[in-house]
């Protein structure tokens, strides 16, 4: 069964659900279409379209999200603090920072965070404790 047959089945047997799905797809695409419901045209509510437009990032925001944090960024300092706290509380060696598992975890969880070197940790981050 091809897509046309499936669409026809959904229109005939599950018209309300089909219209709802079509509406959500159109809204997700940012389109303002008319959905046929019992031979009447009803526009997609503009409030739903506005919600999607509000969530969509601009090109500048996307690029900013990919950039590494500046050394003076408050979030960077917060993560430095949490890492040094973890090392102290869990009695972990500083070499943990160089291990593949830790680096993969940090890259996946915080792609903008650059893991400091061990010398940076011992010279700058740990003395702040």
UniProtKB/TrEMBL annotation:
Highest taxon, organism lineage: Eukaryota
One function term, GO molecular function aspect: zinc ion binding
Location in the cell reads: Nucleus
**Which keywords belong to this entry?**
Metal-binding, Nucleus, Zinc, Zinc-finger
Q: Does the keyword Zinc apply?
A: yes
Is Zinc tagged as a keyword?
yes
One GO cellular-component annotation of the UniProt record comes to: nucleus
Name of the featured protein: Uncharacterized protein
């Amino acid at each position: 069964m091809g897509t046309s047959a499936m669409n026809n089945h959904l229109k005939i047997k599950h018209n309300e659900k089909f219209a709802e799905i079509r509406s959500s797809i159109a809204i997700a695409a940012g389109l303002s279409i008319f959905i046929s419901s019992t031979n009447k045209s009803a526009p997609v509510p503009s409030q739903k379209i506005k919600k999607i437009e509000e969530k969509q990032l601009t090109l500048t925001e996307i690029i900013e999200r990919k950039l590494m944090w500046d050394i003076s960024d408050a979030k960077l300092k917060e993560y430095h603090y949490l890492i040094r706290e973890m090392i102290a509380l869990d009695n972990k060696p500083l070499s943990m920072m160089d291990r593949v598992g830790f680096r993969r975890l940090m890259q996946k969880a915080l792609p903008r965070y650059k893991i400091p070197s061990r010398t940076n940790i011992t010279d700058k981050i740990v003395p702040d404790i």
